[in-house]
Amino acid sequence: MGLMNGPEFGAGETCNVQSSIHAIIGETESSATVILSRTTGPFKIPVISHTASCECLSNRKDHPSFFRTISSDYHQSRALAYIVKHLGWSWVGTVNSDNDYGNYGMAIFLNTAQKEGICVEYSEKFYRTEPEKLKKVVETIKKGTTKVIVAFVSFIEMGLLIDQLSIQNMTGLQIIGVEGWITSKSLITPKSFQVMGGSLGFALRKINVEGFSDYVVKAFWDTAFPCSQIKGESSQYVINCSRYQDLLGLKNYNEDVPEQRYSSHVYKAVYAVAYSLHSLLKCKEQEGCEKGLTIQPQEVVEALKKVNFTVKFGDRVWFDSTGAAVAQYEVVNWQQDSDGSLLFKSVGYYDASLPPEQRFVLNTKSIIWAKGQLENEGHPHSKSQQLRAEFSAALLIDSVFPLFTYFHWSAQ
C-alpha cells in the first residue's frame, strides 16, 4: 500500500526522501514470494521470507534483494535422495505439488536420484484446484508396484492427497516427506494415521523461542478477545462476549506451540532487519541512534548481506551468497506412543554446518515403518543396508552427541 499510495515522481526526478518501507517479511509460499520479490525488486526493497524454500529464489539476477531464514530446497531435495539410498530403496514413486515449491524441489530430487542409482517408477504432480489430476495420482499409486513414495508436496495438496488415500484405504505405503507437511499436526489424525503411519521426512528443527508460549496464552488472547478479562455475567459480557464462549475454553491451550517450527524463522527475520537498521542508524547501546539519517531500502539490502549475530536460543544468523540460511533439518517419523497418542518422533538430523562426515545422522532403530513394522522391508536388501546404516549412524551420533543434546532434538 505504501508503494501504491506514496508520492509520485515525474520523468527525470529523483526520489531522495525517506522510504516508507524498508523491508518486507514474507510471503509464506514460494510462488507467492516469487511474485512479491519480482514486484518489489525494481524498488530494491528487501524481502525476507521465513518459509519460501524454492531453489528458484536463489537466482540473484532475478531476486537481488531477496533473503530467507530458511534454507533452499536444493539441500532438502538432495538429502531426500540420500536418505532413500541410505535405507536401501532403489525403486520409488514420486508425487509433487504443481507449483514452484514442488516442481523445483522434485526436479532436484530426480536429478540426484538418477546419479545415486535410484529408479523412479512414476513421477506425478497435481495442484490443489485440480481434483481430476489428484484422482489420476491416486490411481497411479494404486497401480504402482513400489510402496515407497517420495512426496514433495505443499501442506494443502498433502491434505487433499491424504484424504483420497484414506478414502481408498491404501495402507502399507512408506511415505517420505518434506518440511512443507511432515510436522503439520492437523494432518495427523487416527484416520490419516492408518494410511500415513510410519511416514519419514525432513522437518525444520524444533526450537523453543523464549516467551512465545506465554505470548500465545496471554498477550494474544487478551488482545484478540479483550472480553476474556470481564468477570461475572454482566450485561456487557452477555452482549460482547457470549459469542466467544466456545473459544474461551481454549484460552490456556498451548500444546501446539512446540510444533510451531516456523516461529523461530520469523524471529530471526525480524532481528535481521533490526540489526541492519541499527547498523545503518549507527545505534549504540548507551547513546541511542543518530538523528536525521535518511535510509533507503537498497542500503538495508546491503546491510542484510553483512549481518552476523547470535540469537538468544543459540543460533547464528547470517545469509549466504544466495540470501539463504544454512540447511539444518530434523528427521521425524510418524509414530504412535504407548498411550495411543500420535506424535512426530525425532530419529535423526541433517546439518550442513557440520563437517561432511557428520552432517547426516539417522537412528534406524528408533523408526517405526509403514504398518507399524519395526524392520525396513521396502527393499529386498534393506536389512543388510539397515545394519550398515545403524553402524555408521552410531559412530556419528557418538561424535556429535553434545551438539545433538544442545539443540534438544527430541520427541514431543
TrEMBL record:
Domain named Receptor ligand binding region: residues: 21-336
Keywords attached to this entry: Glycoprotein, Membrane, Receptor, Transmembrane, Transmembrane helix
N-terminal signal peptide: none
Major place of residence: membrane
Coiled coil stretches, renumbered: none
Membrane association type: Multi-pass membrane protein
Name this protein carries in UniProt: Receptor ligand binding region domain-containing protein
